[in-house]
Structures
1.
Amino acid sequence: MSEAETSTHPKYNRAIVGQMLLLELVNGATRCRTVAELVDRITADPDDPSEVETARAAIRELRETGLVTYCDDAQLVEPTKAALHAHALSLTL
């Protein structure tokens, strides 16, 4: 983690927000969620454009790294099999 990431407030830190988003997806009853729904669930202040953009950027980053994928259209995301497997392994530690 870079120095800039460690000095940033957690709600603006993409790595921390990404972890929370991924946990929300793998632990949720519904694995396929809309981007807007995830952003609403994970942000403390949905009227804060910086916080909302951080969450959206974290979703894009999770997709680029192969941990989430888009479902039927570009507004629905779900965790990949790799993300679910890694989460299951982390629970056994």
Note: The radius of gyration is 13 Å.
2.
Amino acid sequence: MFENFALPTAILIASFYFIWSMYNNMIKENATRENKLFEMISKFNNSLDRFSDVLNGYELRLGNIEKSVDDIKDIIK
């Protein structure tokens, strides 16, 4: 009787172990992928913040140029 169940039991245990190890590897890979994506998003946000600072600087410069042009117009009138 034991011989009849030994092979199927061994196959069942091996299959369970294989599926369990694949599942654990998938979880680890997903966690690694998530961490990399969060790092990239953080870098992208930092780049956007720096770009926003540059645009604000340009806006201030353009405002100063516009004021200077208006002052010159007033002088010419």
Note: Residues 2-76 form the longest helix (75 residues).
